[in-house]
Structure formats: structure tokens, C-alpha cells
Amino acid sequence: MRNMHERIRAILHIDLDAFYASIEQRDHPDYRGKPDIVGGLPDRRGVVATASYEARTYGVHSAMPSRTAQRLCPDAIFLPARFDVYRAFGEVDFSKLQTLHKSAFLRSKITSVLHTCQF
Predict the structure, then answer these.
(1) For 49, which of 57, 58, 65, 97 is 20 to 30 Å away at the CA?
(2) Would you report the helix, strand and coil content of the chain in percent, each value rounded to 5?
(3) 45 in a domain, yes or no?
(4) Global pTM?
(5) What CATH number is attached to the domain comprising 29?
């Protein structure tokens, strides 16, 4: 049993690699299981903001030119970014983390991590 005053080291890892694409799949169930790319359109000068894990299997990644992404994954669904939706979901999702822990130490650490996250 641990001493109540002993410090506990906690590591918070949140994988947001395909966050925007996951929100799009949540809001559009017909996109699930398909390669989704959020960002600029391939017929214009644009870049990939994020790609679903299905698109990543083709080698698509963030910051790649959209035209290159289309060459790698011709069946991809290109979607414009909806930052207001992602931001709103992120605020709700992260606020739930604070309720997971009863420890004031952990709660303050999570709060300080949350204040550094910008969506």
C-alpha cells in the first residue's frame, strides 16, 4: 500500500494523430472504414491536415500536399476542415478527464496540461 503523501508520477498520452478524421467518421458513419483526408482539395494548392488510419495505410500523412495524397490514395474522401466542431468536441472530451481522478494532485496536473492544449 502506498503512503498517502507519496507522489505518483502519471503520464498522460492522448493520441490525436487522426483526431479530425475520427470526428468526421463520427459525424458521417458512411465514412467509417474508408480513407478520409481532412485538409485542402487535391485540385487546388492544399495540404493534408490529418488522415484517417485507413488513408495512412496508403502512406498519406499530415502536411503532405493534397495532390500527392490523392496519387497515393485515389479513392480517398477529401473533406474541408471544420475547426469549430473539432474545438467544441475537444473541450467536452478533455473536460471529462478531470472527473476521472479524485486526487487533487492529478486534477491540478490534468488542468495544467489542458491549459497548454489548443484546438
Answers:
(1) 97
(2) 45, 10, 45
(3) yes
(4) 0.67
(5) 3.40.1170.60
